[in-house]
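Quick illustration, no need to memorize.
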Amino acid sequence: MESKDSPKKSAQAPPSAVFDLSVVPMEEPEGGVFSAYANVINLDWTLYDIRLRFSELTQVPNDEAPCWNRQHAIVLEHAAVRIPWEQAKHLRDQLDGVIRNYEEINGELKRPKLAAAPDADYKAP
């Protein structure tokens, strides 16, 4: 128990524990950085973190009839990344800022619409 005259313990981390990420050197692993494409993102979470599941909506051939007009859609999961809640909030703020800046320059992002297949008599130039 602390007395009135004893020094109080500091609740702050020492200055050496605070990092300015803008000046901390970045290194790439010897094998390179993993990269994946995703056009579908899903989430699940726990008390401690959020898992972002990165997938791709794509077409695959039908095993019994592997031809172009018998393909079907699947969601192919490529990667899952877990981050703590605090980093999720930081990610939200970064995405909000970059999307806002993008839309100021290029206009509002809108959900794309899929084009119909060309007619059977269509011939490419």
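The mean pLDDT is 87.
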